[in-house]
Design a protein that fits this description.
Mean pLDDT: 95
GO molecular function: monooxygenase activity
Pfam families: FAD_binding_3
Low-confidence stretches: none
Keywords: FAD, Flavoprotein, Monooxygenase, NADP, Oxidoreductase, Pyridine nucleotide biosynthesis
Function: Catalyzes the hydroxylation of L-kynurenine (L-Kyn) to form 3-hydroxy-L-kynurenine (L-3OHKyn). Required for synthesis of quinolinic acid.
Family: Belongs to the aromatic-ring hydroxylase family. KMO subfamily.
Number of helices: 15
Bound molecules: flavin-adenine dinucleotide
Length: 453
Protein backbone atom coordinates (compact mmCIF):
# COMPACT_ATOMS: atom_id res chain seq x y z
CA UNK A 1 0.00 0.00 0.00
CA UNK A 2 1.42 3.43 -0.90
CA UNK A 3 1.03 6.45 1.34
CA UNK A 4 -1.45 8.52 -0.62
CA UNK A 5 -0.08 11.65 -2.19
CA UNK A 6 3.54 11.20 -1.16
CA UNK A 7 6.36 10.52 -3.59
CA UNK A 8 10.16 10.53 -3.65
CA UNK A 9 11.98 11.92 -6.67
CA UNK A 10 15.62 11.20 -7.49
CA UNK A 11 17.33 14.10 -9.31
CA UNK A 12 16.46 17.80 -9.16
CA UNK A 13 17.56 18.55 -12.71
CA UNK A 14 15.12 19.75 -15.35
CA UNK A 15 12.54 16.95 -15.17
CA UNK A 16 12.80 16.36 -11.42
CA UNK A 17 12.18 20.01 -10.55
CA UNK A 18 9.27 20.28 -12.99
CA UNK A 19 7.54 17.10 -11.83
CA UNK A 20 7.98 18.17 -8.20
CA UNK A 21 6.17 21.42 -9.02
CA UNK A 22 3.32 19.77 -10.91
CA UNK A 23 2.62 17.42 -7.98
CA UNK A 24 3.29 19.83 -5.10
CA UNK A 25 0.93 22.39 -6.62
CA UNK A 26 -1.82 19.78 -6.34
CA UNK A 27 -1.10 19.26 -2.64
CA UNK A 28 1.20 16.25 -2.91
CA UNK A 29 4.07 15.80 -0.48
CA UNK A 30 7.15 15.61 -2.65
CA UNK A 31 10.70 14.90 -1.49
CA UNK A 32 13.43 15.46 -4.08
CA UNK A 33 16.96 14.10 -3.58
CA UNK A 34 19.75 15.67 -5.66
CA UNK A 35 23.38 14.57 -5.88
CA UNK A 36 24.81 18.07 -6.33
CA UNK A 37 24.69 21.18 -4.18
CA UNK A 38 21.95 23.79 -4.49
CA UNK A 39 22.70 25.78 -7.68
CA UNK A 40 20.83 28.75 -6.20
CA UNK A 41 23.61 29.11 -3.63
CA UNK A 42 26.81 28.35 -5.49
CA UNK A 43 25.91 28.67 -9.14
CA UNK A 44 25.15 25.93 -11.57
CA UNK A 45 27.80 23.22 -11.66
CA UNK A 46 27.46 22.55 -15.39
CA UNK A 47 28.19 19.13 -16.79
CA UNK A 48 25.91 19.02 -19.82
CA UNK A 49 25.15 21.51 -22.60
CA UNK A 50 25.12 25.16 -21.56
CA UNK A 51 21.97 26.15 -23.41
CA UNK A 52 18.97 24.34 -24.84
CA UNK A 53 16.25 24.91 -27.42
CA UNK A 54 12.83 25.12 -25.79
CA UNK A 55 9.83 24.32 -28.00
CA UNK A 56 6.05 24.12 -27.63
CA UNK A 57 5.93 20.78 -25.80
CA UNK A 58 8.27 22.11 -23.14
CA UNK A 59 6.50 25.46 -22.94
CA UNK A 60 3.16 23.75 -22.46
CA UNK A 61 4.54 21.86 -19.47
CA UNK A 62 6.09 25.06 -18.08
CA UNK A 63 2.72 26.82 -18.38
CA UNK A 64 1.05 24.04 -16.39
CA UNK A 65 3.72 24.46 -13.69
CA UNK A 66 3.34 28.26 -13.65
CA UNK A 67 6.96 28.63 -14.79
CA UNK A 68 6.62 29.81 -18.40
CA UNK A 69 6.71 33.53 -17.70
CA UNK A 70 9.86 33.42 -15.57
CA UNK A 71 11.63 31.15 -18.08
CA UNK A 72 10.62 33.21 -21.11
CA UNK A 73 11.95 36.38 -19.47
CA UNK A 74 15.48 35.10 -20.09
CA UNK A 75 14.90 33.17 -23.34
CA UNK A 76 16.24 34.27 -26.73
CA UNK A 77 14.05 33.73 -29.80
CA UNK A 78 15.45 31.64 -32.67
CA UNK A 79 13.47 32.13 -35.89
CA UNK A 80 15.31 29.62 -37.99
CA UNK A 81 18.60 28.06 -38.98
CA UNK A 82 21.26 30.48 -40.15
CA UNK A 83 23.28 28.26 -42.47
CA UNK A 84 26.95 29.26 -42.88
CA UNK A 85 28.32 27.91 -46.15
CA UNK A 86 32.00 27.10 -46.65
CA UNK A 87 32.46 30.17 -48.89
CA UNK A 88 31.19 32.48 -46.13
CA UNK A 89 27.66 33.01 -47.54
CA UNK A 90 24.82 32.73 -45.06
CA UNK A 91 21.15 31.84 -45.51
CA UNK A 92 18.36 32.06 -42.91
CA UNK A 93 15.98 29.09 -43.26
CA UNK A 94 12.89 29.91 -41.20
CA UNK A 95 11.56 27.15 -38.95
CA UNK A 96 7.90 28.11 -39.23
CA UNK A 97 5.48 30.36 -41.04
CA UNK A 98 6.12 33.46 -38.92
CA UNK A 99 7.24 34.55 -35.44
CA UNK A 100 4.48 32.50 -33.85
CA UNK A 101 6.46 29.41 -34.92
CA UNK A 102 9.91 29.80 -33.39
CA UNK A 103 12.06 28.06 -30.79
CA UNK A 104 13.75 29.61 -27.75
CA UNK A 105 17.28 29.34 -26.44
CA UNK A 106 17.36 28.99 -22.66
CA UNK A 107 20.30 28.71 -20.30
CA UNK A 108 20.30 25.30 -18.58
CA UNK A 109 21.57 26.64 -15.26
CA UNK A 110 19.13 29.57 -15.13
CA UNK A 111 16.27 27.29 -16.13
CA UNK A 112 17.16 24.80 -13.39
CA UNK A 113 17.34 27.56 -10.79
CA UNK A 114 13.91 28.94 -11.81
CA UNK A 115 12.34 25.46 -11.68
CA UNK A 116 13.86 24.65 -8.28
CA UNK A 117 12.56 27.88 -6.80
CA UNK A 118 9.09 27.28 -8.20
CA UNK A 119 9.14 23.69 -6.89
CA UNK A 120 10.14 24.83 -3.42
CA UNK A 121 7.57 27.64 -3.43
CA UNK A 122 4.93 25.04 -4.33
CA UNK A 123 5.88 23.05 -1.21
CA UNK A 124 8.31 20.40 -2.52
CA UNK A 125 11.15 19.52 -0.11
CA UNK A 126 14.53 19.65 -1.84
CA UNK A 127 17.43 17.67 -0.35
CA UNK A 128 20.83 18.54 -1.89
CA UNK A 129 24.10 16.60 -1.65
CA UNK A 130 22.10 13.40 -1.67
CA UNK A 131 23.37 11.12 -4.43
CA UNK A 132 21.41 7.88 -4.66
CA UNK A 133 23.88 5.02 -4.17
CA UNK A 134 21.78 1.89 -3.51
CA UNK A 135 18.17 0.73 -3.15
CA UNK A 136 16.74 -2.17 -1.17
CA UNK A 137 13.46 -2.63 -3.02
CA UNK A 138 12.18 -5.34 -0.67
CA UNK A 139 12.52 -3.16 2.42
CA UNK A 140 11.81 0.03 0.37
CA UNK A 141 14.93 1.73 1.66
CA UNK A 142 17.00 4.12 -0.47
CA UNK A 143 20.58 4.96 0.46
CA UNK A 144 22.28 8.27 -0.40
CA UNK A 145 25.81 9.57 -0.28
CA UNK A 146 26.76 13.12 0.76
CA UNK A 147 29.74 14.17 -1.39
CA UNK A 148 30.88 16.75 1.20
CA UNK A 149 31.82 14.27 3.94
CA UNK A 150 31.14 10.90 2.30
CA UNK A 151 28.42 10.18 4.86
CA UNK A 152 25.57 7.77 4.13
CA UNK A 153 21.87 8.54 4.66
CA UNK A 154 18.88 6.24 4.40
CA UNK A 155 15.21 6.91 3.84
CA UNK A 156 12.12 4.71 3.63
CA UNK A 157 10.08 5.28 0.47
CA UNK A 158 6.76 4.31 -1.05
CA UNK A 159 7.72 4.88 -4.67
CA UNK A 160 10.80 6.33 -6.33
CA UNK A 161 10.74 8.36 -9.52
CA UNK A 162 14.05 8.37 -11.39
CA UNK A 163 14.70 11.81 -12.88
CA UNK A 164 18.43 11.35 -12.40
CA UNK A 165 19.48 11.65 -16.01
CA UNK A 166 21.27 9.51 -18.57
CA UNK A 167 23.60 7.86 -16.03
CA UNK A 168 20.67 7.11 -13.67
CA UNK A 169 21.65 5.38 -10.43
CA UNK A 170 18.02 4.38 -9.90
CA UNK A 171 18.00 2.65 -13.29
CA UNK A 172 21.12 0.70 -12.29
CA UNK A 173 19.46 -0.35 -9.02
CA UNK A 174 16.23 -1.36 -10.81
CA UNK A 175 18.27 -3.38 -13.31
CA UNK A 176 19.61 -5.44 -10.42
CA UNK A 177 16.08 -6.24 -9.27
CA UNK A 178 14.60 -6.90 -12.73
CA UNK A 179 15.85 -6.89 -16.31
CA UNK A 180 14.81 -3.58 -17.88
CA UNK A 181 16.03 -4.68 -21.32
CA UNK A 182 18.59 -1.88 -21.44
CA UNK A 183 20.80 -1.13 -24.42
CA UNK A 184 22.84 1.92 -25.32
CA UNK A 185 23.81 2.75 -28.88
CA UNK A 186 26.71 5.16 -29.14
CA UNK A 187 26.61 7.52 -32.11
CA UNK A 188 30.33 7.37 -32.81
CA UNK A 189 30.39 11.18 -32.73
CA UNK A 190 31.02 13.47 -29.76
CA UNK A 191 30.83 17.18 -29.00
CA UNK A 192 32.83 20.03 -27.54
CA UNK A 193 31.51 23.42 -26.41
CA UNK A 194 33.23 26.72 -27.26
CA UNK A 195 32.18 30.31 -26.60
CA UNK A 196 31.54 33.39 -28.73
CA UNK A 197 31.73 36.40 -26.37
CA UNK A 198 29.72 39.62 -26.87
CA UNK A 199 30.87 42.09 -29.55
CA UNK A 200 33.04 45.05 -28.39
CA UNK A 201 29.87 47.22 -28.17
CA UNK A 202 28.32 44.68 -25.76
CA UNK A 203 25.80 43.30 -28.28
CA UNK A 204 25.59 39.94 -30.05
CA UNK A 205 28.43 39.48 -32.50
CA UNK A 206 26.29 37.56 -35.06
CA UNK A 207 22.53 37.44 -35.73
CA UNK A 208 20.96 36.91 -32.31
CA UNK A 209 17.62 35.39 -33.30
CA UNK A 210 18.82 32.27 -35.05
CA UNK A 211 20.34 28.88 -34.45
CA UNK A 212 23.56 29.06 -36.46
CA UNK A 213 24.77 25.97 -38.33
CA UNK A 214 28.00 25.32 -40.19
CA UNK A 215 27.16 22.02 -41.99
CA UNK A 216 30.24 20.24 -43.33
CA UNK A 217 29.12 16.75 -44.38
CA UNK A 218 30.31 14.30 -41.73
CA UNK A 219 30.57 16.97 -39.07
CA UNK A 220 29.28 20.42 -38.12
CA UNK A 221 29.22 23.31 -35.69
CA UNK A 222 26.12 24.93 -34.26
CA UNK A 223 25.72 28.06 -32.08
CA UNK A 224 22.82 29.07 -29.84
CA UNK A 225 22.45 32.58 -28.35
CA UNK A 226 22.47 33.28 -24.61
CA UNK A 227 20.72 36.22 -23.00
CA UNK A 228 24.04 37.67 -21.80
CA UNK A 229 24.88 38.26 -25.51
CA UNK A 230 27.21 35.30 -25.88
CA UNK A 231 26.77 32.22 -28.06
CA UNK A 232 27.53 28.67 -27.07
CA UNK A 233 29.14 26.93 -30.04
CA UNK A 234 29.00 23.15 -30.18
CA UNK A 235 31.45 21.35 -32.45
CA UNK A 236 30.24 17.85 -33.41
CA UNK A 237 32.92 15.54 -34.84
CA UNK A 238 33.26 11.79 -35.40
CA UNK A 239 35.32 9.97 -32.78
CA UNK A 240 37.62 8.52 -35.43
CA UNK A 241 38.81 9.34 -38.95
CA UNK A 242 39.80 12.66 -40.47
CA UNK A 243 38.85 15.07 -38.97
CA UNK A 244 37.78 13.61 -35.64
CA UNK A 245 38.33 13.95 -31.92
CA UNK A 246 41.03 11.34 -32.44
CA UNK A 247 42.91 13.38 -35.07
CA UNK A 248 42.28 16.78 -33.44
CA UNK A 249 43.52 16.74 -29.89
CA UNK A 250 45.17 20.10 -29.29
CA UNK A 251 43.99 23.70 -29.48
CA UNK A 252 46.42 24.34 -32.33
CA UNK A 253 44.93 21.46 -34.35
CA UNK A 254 41.45 22.82 -33.64
CA UNK A 255 42.53 26.22 -34.98
CA UNK A 256 43.78 24.61 -38.20
CA UNK A 257 40.42 22.84 -38.61
CA UNK A 258 38.54 26.10 -38.05
CA UNK A 259 40.81 27.99 -40.49
CA UNK A 260 39.89 25.48 -43.18
CA UNK A 261 36.24 24.62 -42.42
CA UNK A 262 34.73 27.28 -40.16
CA UNK A 263 36.69 30.35 -41.26
CA UNK A 264 33.91 32.88 -40.57
CA UNK A 265 33.42 31.50 -37.04
CA UNK A 266 37.11 31.53 -36.12
CA UNK A 267 37.50 35.28 -35.39
CA UNK A 268 34.41 35.11 -33.18
CA UNK A 269 35.96 32.55 -30.78
CA UNK A 270 38.98 34.28 -29.25
CA UNK A 271 39.60 31.52 -26.69
CA UNK A 272 39.33 28.67 -29.18
CA UNK A 273 42.51 26.89 -28.06
CA UNK A 274 41.68 27.27 -24.36
CA UNK A 275 38.03 26.21 -24.76
CA UNK A 276 39.01 23.22 -26.88
CA UNK A 277 41.63 21.96 -24.45
CA UNK A 278 39.79 22.88 -21.26
CA UNK A 279 36.18 21.86 -21.98
CA UNK A 280 35.25 18.18 -21.77
CA UNK A 281 34.35 16.13 -24.83
CA UNK A 282 30.77 14.89 -24.45
CA UNK A 283 29.66 11.48 -25.69
CA UNK A 284 26.41 11.06 -27.64
CA UNK A 285 24.22 7.99 -27.33
CA UNK A 286 20.66 6.70 -27.46
CA UNK A 287 19.38 4.71 -24.49
CA UNK A 288 16.64 2.14 -25.07
CA UNK A 289 14.76 0.31 -22.30
CA UNK A 290 11.93 -2.19 -22.71
CA UNK A 291 10.57 -1.44 -19.24
CA UNK A 292 10.52 1.81 -17.33
CA UNK A 293 8.99 0.72 -14.03
CA UNK A 294 9.24 -1.86 -11.25
CA UNK A 295 5.60 -2.45 -10.18
CA UNK A 296 4.61 0.37 -7.80
CA UNK A 297 8.11 0.81 -6.39
CA UNK A 298 9.97 2.76 -9.05
CA UNK A 299 9.56 4.43 -12.41
CA UNK A 300 11.97 6.27 -14.72
CA UNK A 301 11.42 9.32 -16.90
CA UNK A 302 13.37 11.85 -18.96
CA UNK A 303 16.95 10.98 -19.86
CA UNK A 304 17.00 8.21 -17.23
CA UNK A 305 14.44 6.34 -19.36
CA UNK A 306 15.28 7.41 -22.91
CA UNK A 307 18.37 9.60 -23.40
CA UNK A 308 18.67 10.64 -27.03
CA UNK A 309 21.09 12.45 -29.31
CA UNK A 310 20.48 16.23 -29.22
CA UNK A 311 19.82 16.92 -32.91
CA UNK A 312 16.11 17.62 -32.70
CA UNK A 313 16.50 19.74 -29.57
CA UNK A 314 13.78 17.65 -27.92
CA UNK A 315 15.38 15.73 -25.00
CA UNK A 316 14.26 18.25 -22.39
CA UNK A 317 10.98 18.96 -24.19
CA UNK A 318 10.23 15.24 -24.20
CA UNK A 319 11.26 14.93 -20.53
CA UNK A 320 8.85 17.76 -19.66
CA UNK A 321 6.06 16.00 -21.57
CA UNK A 322 6.84 12.86 -19.54
CA UNK A 323 6.38 14.88 -16.34
CA UNK A 324 2.94 16.08 -17.44
CA UNK A 325 1.90 12.55 -18.46
CA UNK A 326 3.11 10.97 -15.19
CA UNK A 327 1.59 13.72 -13.04
CA UNK A 328 -1.76 13.23 -14.81
CA UNK A 329 -1.69 9.49 -14.06
CA UNK A 330 -0.75 10.01 -10.43
CA UNK A 331 -3.23 12.83 -9.84
CA UNK A 332 -6.01 10.70 -11.32
CA UNK A 333 -5.61 8.62 -8.15
CA UNK A 334 -5.10 5.31 -9.94
CA UNK A 335 -3.43 2.38 -8.28
CA UNK A 336 0.23 3.38 -8.44
CA UNK A 337 1.55 0.31 -10.23
CA UNK A 338 -1.20 0.82 -12.81
CA UNK A 339 -0.37 4.54 -13.09
CA UNK A 340 3.30 3.67 -13.80
CA UNK A 341 2.31 0.96 -16.29
CA UNK A 342 -0.07 3.30 -18.13
CA UNK A 343 2.58 6.01 -18.21
CA UNK A 344 5.10 3.60 -19.74
CA UNK A 345 2.53 2.34 -22.23
CA UNK A 346 1.79 5.87 -23.42
CA UNK A 347 5.28 7.36 -23.40
CA UNK A 348 7.60 4.52 -24.44
CA UNK A 349 6.48 4.55 -28.06
CA UNK A 350 6.59 8.36 -28.11
CA UNK A 351 10.16 8.27 -26.81
CA UNK A 352 11.19 5.71 -29.44
CA UNK A 353 9.77 7.95 -32.18
CA UNK A 354 11.59 11.11 -31.08
CA UNK A 355 14.80 9.13 -30.54
CA UNK A 356 14.61 7.96 -34.17
CA UNK A 357 13.84 11.46 -35.45
CA UNK A 358 16.71 12.93 -33.44
CA UNK A 359 19.13 10.48 -35.08
CA UNK A 360 17.75 11.30 -38.55
CA UNK A 361 18.10 15.00 -37.90
CA UNK A 362 21.86 14.74 -37.43
CA UNK A 363 22.21 13.70 -41.04
CA UNK A 364 19.86 16.46 -42.13
CA UNK A 365 21.67 19.20 -40.18
CA UNK A 366 25.23 18.29 -41.01
CA UNK A 367 24.77 17.12 -44.58
CA UNK A 368 21.51 18.18 -46.20
CA UNK A 369 20.64 21.76 -45.29
CA UNK A 370 22.92 23.06 -48.07
CA UNK A 371 22.02 20.48 -50.72
CA UNK A 372 19.90 21.30 -53.83
CA UNK A 373 17.50 18.31 -53.72
CA UNK A 374 16.82 19.03 -50.08
CA UNK A 375 16.19 22.72 -50.73
CA UNK A 376 13.73 21.89 -53.53
CA UNK A 377 11.91 19.41 -51.28
CA UNK A 378 11.72 22.05 -48.59
CA UNK A 379 10.30 24.58 -51.05
CA UNK A 380 7.62 22.06 -52.06
CA UNK A 381 6.99 21.26 -48.40
CA UNK A 382 6.25 24.93 -47.72
CA UNK A 383 3.99 25.14 -50.76
CA UNK A 384 2.04 22.02 -49.78
CA UNK A 385 1.63 23.29 -46.23
CA UNK A 386 0.04 26.44 -47.73
CA UNK A 387 -2.18 24.59 -50.18
CA UNK A 388 -3.25 21.80 -47.80
CA UNK A 389 -3.06 23.15 -44.24
CA UNK A 390 -5.52 20.47 -43.10
CA UNK A 391 -3.36 17.60 -44.39
CA UNK A 392 0.26 18.60 -44.84
CA UNK A 393 2.48 19.94 -42.07
CA UNK A 394 6.30 19.83 -42.15
CA UNK A 395 7.57 17.22 -39.69
CA UNK A 396 9.71 19.78 -37.95
CA UNK A 397 6.55 21.81 -37.24
CA UNK A 398 4.64 18.77 -35.98
CA UNK A 399 7.44 18.01 -33.52
CA UNK A 400 8.34 21.55 -32.55
CA UNK A 401 5.24 23.74 -32.67
CA UNK A 402 2.54 21.18 -31.87
CA UNK A 403 1.91 18.51 -29.28
CA UNK A 404 0.54 15.59 -31.29
CA UNK A 405 2.23 12.38 -30.10
CA UNK A 406 5.76 12.06 -31.47
CA UNK A 407 4.86 8.73 -33.08
CA UNK A 408 2.11 10.43 -35.11
CA UNK A 409 4.56 13.10 -36.29
CA UNK A 410 7.09 10.39 -37.15
CA UNK A 411 4.67 8.27 -39.15
CA UNK A 412 3.07 11.20 -41.02
CA UNK A 413 6.54 12.63 -41.63
CA UNK A 414 7.63 9.40 -43.33
CA UNK A 415 4.64 9.46 -45.68
CA UNK A 416 5.18 13.14 -46.46
CA UNK A 417 8.86 12.61 -47.20
CA UNK A 418 8.07 9.83 -49.66
CA UNK A 419 5.66 12.19 -51.40
CA UNK A 420 8.20 15.03 -51.55
CA UNK A 421 10.87 12.76 -53.03
CA UNK A 422 8.47 11.33 -55.62
CA UNK A 423 6.99 14.67 -56.62
CA UNK A 424 10.33 16.47 -57.05
CA UNK A 425 12.14 13.59 -58.82
CA UNK A 426 13.48 14.80 -62.20
CA UNK A 427 12.64 18.46 -61.43
CA UNK A 428 15.00 21.26 -60.51
CA UNK A 429 12.34 23.86 -59.79
CA UNK A 430 8.73 23.86 -58.63
CA UNK A 431 7.64 25.63 -61.86
CA UNK A 432 7.60 22.41 -63.87
CA UNK A 433 5.28 20.51 -61.47
CA UNK A 434 1.77 19.43 -62.54
CA UNK A 435 -0.12 20.97 -59.62
CA UNK A 436 -3.41 19.15 -60.17
CA UNK A 437 -1.54 15.83 -59.95
CA UNK A 438 0.36 17.08 -56.89
CA UNK A 439 -2.87 18.12 -55.13
CA UNK A 440 -4.53 14.82 -55.97
CA UNK A 441 -1.56 12.89 -54.56
CA UNK A 442 -1.72 14.83 -51.28
CA UNK A 443 -5.46 14.20 -50.91
CA UNK A 444 -5.07 10.53 -51.72
CA UNK A 445 -2.03 9.81 -49.55
CA UNK A 446 -2.48 12.01 -46.46
CA UNK A 447 -5.40 11.83 -44.06
CA UNK A 448 -6.55 15.04 -42.33
CA UNK A 449 -4.27 16.16 -39.49
CA UNK A 450 -5.33 15.27 -35.92
CA UNK A 451 -7.21 17.89 -33.87
CA UNK A 452 -4.20 19.00 -31.78
CA UNK A 453 -2.48 20.23 -34.94
C1 LIG B 1 24.85 18.70 -26.07
C2 LIG B 1 23.40 18.58 -25.68
C3 LIG B 1 22.49 19.48 -26.19
C4 LIG B 1 21.14 19.38 -25.86
N1 LIG B 1 20.26 20.27 -26.41
C5 LIG B 1 18.93 20.17 -26.13
C6 LIG B 1 18.01 21.10 -26.67
O1 LIG B 1 18.38 22.02 -27.40
N2 LIG B 1 16.69 20.94 -26.36
C7 LIG B 1 16.24 19.93 -25.57
O2 LIG B 1 15.01 19.83 -25.34
N3 LIG B 1 17.10 19.05 -25.03
C8 LIG B 1 18.43 19.13 -25.29
N4 LIG B 1 19.32 18.25 -24.73
C9 LIG B 1 18.79 17.15 -23.89
C10 LIG B 1 18.55 17.59 -22.45
O3 LIG B 1 19.76 18.09 -21.92
C11 LIG B 1 18.08 16.42 -21.62
O4 LIG B 1 17.11 15.68 -22.30
C12 LIG B 1 17.51 16.91 -20.28
O5 LIG B 1 18.52 17.52 -19.53
C13 LIG B 1 16.90 15.73 -19.51
O6 LIG B 1 16.47 16.17 -18.26
P1 LIG B 1 16.51 15.18 -17.02
O7 LIG B 1 15.95 15.96 -15.89
O8 LIG B 1 15.92 13.87 -17.41
O9 LIG B 1 18.07 14.90 -16.76
P2 LIG B 1 19.19 15.92 -16.28
O10 LIG B 1 18.89 17.28 -16.77
O11 LIG B 1 20.48 15.29 -16.67
O12 LIG B 1 19.06 15.94 -14.69
C14 LIG B 1 19.43 14.85 -13.89
C15 LIG B 1 19.65 15.34 -12.47
O13 LIG B 1 19.85 14.22 -11.63
C16 LIG B 1 20.97 14.46 -10.79
N5 LIG B 1 21.55 13.16 -10.44
C17 LIG B 1 22.34 12.37 -11.20
N6 LIG B 1 22.67 11.25 -10.53
C18 LIG B 1 22.05 11.33 -9.32
C19 LIG B 1 22.01 10.48 -8.19
N7 LIG B 1 22.68 9.32 -8.16
N8 LIG B 1 21.28 10.86 -7.11
C20 LIG B 1 20.60 12.04 -7.12
N9 LIG B 1 20.62 12.90 -8.17
C21 LIG B 1 21.33 12.54 -9.26
C22 LIG B 1 21.88 15.32 -11.64
O14 LIG B 1 22.83 16.03 -10.84
C23 LIG B 1 20.87 16.23 -12.32
O15 LIG B 1 20.56 17.35 -11.53
C24 LIG B 1 20.69 18.34 -25.01
C25 LIG B 1 21.60 17.44 -24.48
C26 LIG B 1 22.96 17.56 -24.81
C27 LIG B 1 23.92 16.57 -24.23
Amino acid sequence: MNTPNHITLIGAGLAGALLATLLARQGWQVDVYEKRGDPRLKGYAGGRSINLALAERGRHALRLAGADEAVMAQAVMMRGRMVHFLDGRTDLQRYGRDDSEVIWSVHRGELNVILLQIAEDAGAKLHFHRGLSAVDFDARIARFNDDRDDSTHEIVFDSLVGADGAGSALRAAMNQATDLGERTEFLGHSYKELEIPPAPDGGFSIEANALHIWPRGRYMCIALPNDERTFTVTLFLPNEGEPSFDSIRTGAQARTLFERDFADALPLIPQLERDFEHNPTGLLATLYLDRWHLDDRAVLLGDAAHAMVPFHGQGMNCAFEDCVALAERLLAGNDRAQAFADFQQQRLRSARAIQAMALENYLEMRDRVDNDDYLLQRALERELAERHPDRFMPRYAMVTFHRMPYEVAFERGQRQRELLVELTRGHDSLDSLDWSAVDAAVRERLTPLPADA
